[in-house]
Amino acid sequence: MIRKAVIICTVLCMTNMMAFTQAKTIDKGQRGHHVQKVQTMLVQQGYLKDSADGIFGRNTELAVRKFQKSKGLAVDGRVGPATMSALEKGSKGSSYSQYTKGAPSKYTRAITMHATAYSSQDPGNGNYTATGSRLKKGIVSVDPKIIPLGTKMYVEGYGYAIADDVGGAIKGHRIDLAFDSRYDALQFGRQNVTVYIL
């Protein structure tokens, strides 16, 4: 009877330990803010070219493997405690820190909008916005009737930005997010996002 109780206790303890370990691992197929945080750090450190969309897909897995290999970690494409610690250490003091803080806790309103992406490398685009700023990541093209120019915001899956451009096709609840390269803009594609007005 005692032996049976010990076996049951051992099995339960091992099951709980496995569940704890799995909960601490971010893996392919998962979605959410925890995935977006990992992706943002990978983008920031130059391992991921995609946007931080919160979906752990093939490109994110490849970026994790590349990061793990460069840091001498076990290369399994999964973000466990050791990989997360190395990612967080590498993120401190980055010049991209303004884009990696996560969704704000304080904002005036949140709007769901249809987002597209553009860059100065796109055919017909120049290097400057309608207000004269250099076109780069962090600039958003808006309909000034919906979001006034100069408005600071946080865009889900993109980061902190400012409304500093307008476009002929950008009307109503549409925004166009600037990227530093045409490749990055194409990787973002089109998606519905939540825009937090600061």
Automatic annotation (TrEMBL):
InterPro entries: 3D_dom, Peptidoglycan-bd-like, PGBD-like_sf, PGBDSf, Resuscitation_pf_RpfB, RlpA-like_sf. This is Uncharacterized protein. Residues 34-87 form the Peptidoglycan binding-like domain. Keywords: Signal. Residues 1-19 form the signal peptide. GO terms for biological process: peptidoglycan turnover. It comes from Veillonella tobetsuensis. One of its GO terms (cellular component) is outer membrane. One of its GO terms (molecular function) is hydrolase activity, hydrolyzing O-glycosyl compounds. PANTHER family: CELL WALL-BINDING PROTEIN YOCH, RESUSCITATION-PROMOTING FACTOR RPFB. Residues 140-198 form the 3D domain.
